[in-house]
Amino acid sequence: MFTRVTSRSSRTPQLRTRAAVLAAGLGASVVLGAGVAAAANTVTATTTATAATSGVASAVEAQAAAQAKAAAKVAAANAKAKAAAKAAAANSKKAAQRAAAKKAASWTRPVKSYRLSASYAQAGGMWQSTHSGQDFAVPTGTRVVAAHGGTVVKAGGNGAGDGPAYGNAVVIKHGNGTFSQYAHLARVDVKVGQIVATGQRIALSGNTGNSSGPHLHFEIRTTANYGTAINPVAFLRAKGVTL
Ligand SMILES: [Zn+2]
């Protein structure tokens, strides 16, 4: 709605207002056209309208600049948020990798390349009751490593004190109330009291004791002695080791 006014004093603000409204909605070029059309009646009006238009033009310019500035600000904020999200994702991925690496580094397989043969708690003529460990079928002379860092508490023949069935054996005490045992060894490379690191070579595999063929017999025990074994495969897998 537009009410025509003749007073010069009130005309200018009205044009200004109208032009500014148009400017906001349609853009500067349309405002200039409308301003010229409205001002075509009289010379006075034209002058006024021109003045108003130039005023609007600078207002539009300022507004455009402000909008561009605001848009740039928003774009910068978006880019920043995007970068932050990316960095956060990268950080959490890195943290997960670090955690996985740490978990894997803390325990490892006793032999690198093997075939899982007789499993834990398996029944059979070879054992008094059931199998007390996990067998890793490997050729004689395969490098056997400490599955976790600790102190050697048993090492030598006669199952290192656990009986002739084990042949040459090693038992390592770990800091978390568990022990690992390695049996049927061809050669023992550590001594009682020796501190070993995760993955350090402790022996070479063999076929000594009550063994049906070359393999490493591996146990996880809750004490240093025979009869306290738990499932070593489940134990290692729970530590993040792939078997
Ligand atoms: Zn075995």
Structure write-up:
The longest helix has 64 residues. The chain is of the alpha+beta class. It folds into two domains: 97 residues; 124 residues, Distorted Sandwich (Glucose Permease (Domain IIA)). The N terminus is likely disordered. The two termini are 83 Å apart. The strands form two sheets. Strands 1, 2, 4, 5, 6, 8, 10 and 11 form an eight-stranded antiparallel sheet that branches. It has four helices and eleven strands; from the N terminus they run H-H-H-E-E-E-E-E-E-E-E-E-E-E-H. The structure holds zinc ion (ZN). Zinc ion binds next to loops. The site of zinc ion has 5 residues, from loops.
Strand content: 15-25%
The molecules bound to the chains, other than polymers, are: zinc ion
Total DSSP helices:
4
CATH topology name of the largest domain: Glucose Permease (Domain IIA)
CATH superfamily of the largest domain: Glucose Permease (Domain IIA)
SSE string, helices as H and strands as E: HHHEEEEEEEEEEEH
Q: In CATH terms, what is the architecture of the largest domain? A: Distorted Sandwich
Q: Which structural class fits the helix and strand makeup? A: alpha+beta
The average pLDDT value, as a whole number, equals 80
Q: How many domain units?
A: 2
Low-confidence stretches: 1-52
Count of individual beta strands? 11
Keywords, please?
single chain, alpha+beta, Glucose Permease (Domain IIA), eight-stranded antiparallel beta sheet, three-stranded antiparallel beta sheet, 11 strands, 42% helix, 19% strand, disordered N terminus
